[in-house]
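Please, structure for the following, as tokens.
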Amino acid sequence: MKHDLIEPILIGGKWQKAESSDVFQAWNPANGEKIDRLFPVSSWPDIEKALSEAEKVIRPLAQSSAEKRADFFFVLADWLEKRREEIVAQAHLETALPVEPRLNSVEFPRLVNQIRQAAEALKEGSWCQATIDTKLNIRAKYGPLGGSVIIFSPNNFPLVFNSVCGGDFISALAVGNPVIAKANPSHPGTTKLLSEIALEALKQVNLPPASFQMIYHFNSEICFQLITHPTVAAIAFTGSRQSGLKIKEVAEKAGKLVYCELSSVNPVFFLPGILKEKATSLATELFASCTLGEGQFCTKPGLIVFQNDEAGQQFLNQLKKIFHTVTGGYLVSPQVLEKLKTEVERFKNEEAELLVGGELIPGPGFRFAPTLFSIEGRKFLQKSLTFQTEVFGPLTLAVLVKDIKEMFEVACALNGNLTGSVYLSDSKEDELIYSQLEPILRLKVGRLLNNKMPTGVAVTAAMHHGGPFPATSHPGFTSVGLPAAFLRFAARHCYDNVPNHRLPIELQNKNPNGRMWRLIDGEWSRGDIKI
């Protein structure tokens, strides 16, 4: 195999040949064939180079101005838009996610929107939470961690959650931390393209060229060497619970910050009153959410709960009808397909009843029929942990409870989730049930929804994309919603009795831009400190 046919890695601001000759290829999910590009599986010398280059820029990047980092994001967003068609086409090739509306009209606009939101937050400045006690002359704010951030990206969002230009990348760099990005093997070509664009944006604004670096792949042993290296400060991982827990265990033993998004079944509760009113439309709405992106959203409703009465049976019958609909999408990799097949067999073995689907769709590519299982509430409660494993793909489990008391018991048995939804009518009956269900569900989920499916994750400052374990490794942080997402990669910097001229501009007596909110002697203010 000719070494020059293997795609280069990005180290220290330069595209370089990887040391290893081991390679992998991405798949085209639409035809089930490998794409004719070779990407390297890096050995330790590649990682060592990246760590060395990152170490050189830890202090320069930390000392860079928020305005310069904001400029980088503005330039990056502009340049991404200029190459929009190319980016969308590459992501479509590697994931088979539809160009319209998914990639071009939904995910790409969100990508550039969140980048510009980060830039605006940096220019405004309140994100750093400048806090000042004038009497004691103690001042504090959030700032860089003092080490690299390692980003592992998921397979299901090739743009907005990419390890380059995606949400974690934005948050880590916004604070002033160098990034070492690991591409997801499902879309390495997309990650390379985004890296090329981001590197040119770095050069234009004159930020250190090793502010971010990109490696495609490496084995688990090298992964653990990387995340425990002394110059690494934090790790962001989105993926399977099994892999995430191992990374979390190794990283925490080494004293590293680690933020993992692990698994979530996103329960949806349908109360009796709403099912009496609109069972048919709710079935359609639920199916659309369960099969959005072929069920490969981390917020897919994987578990639905409703009472097994007449209205509940009518709802279930409607679900069985609509789940026979054949969707036109693809699973992003053969690994996702094989895992889905395994989970279907496991559900059967655990005595869940297969109502619809559970099989491959004939033809080319990675396709699987929309799948609906059901189980009685009492059986679910006997094996509640068994049925709360996240399953990527269009699979949903309906839990049929005998009464509202059993519904509350199911809610109490839930693990932590990213989301939890409750559909209810305006009837007194539903309101009473909700008043007792909500306090249970509120402590089980990061985002609580009413009469709304959870698959839409808006990029707004109020959004929380996180949740209690095992949804994520820390319920107090979000990966979506700026500038709150910055704080995962920030340290609290305190200054005690430091003269005004030696302080960071955010903590000096004069408000640096007149817009930044600062907590001064217990009161939020945009004013200057007059001493």
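The radius of gyration is 24 Å. Residues 268-450 form a domain with the Aldehyde Dehydrogenase; Chain A, domain 2 fold (CATH 3.40.309.10).
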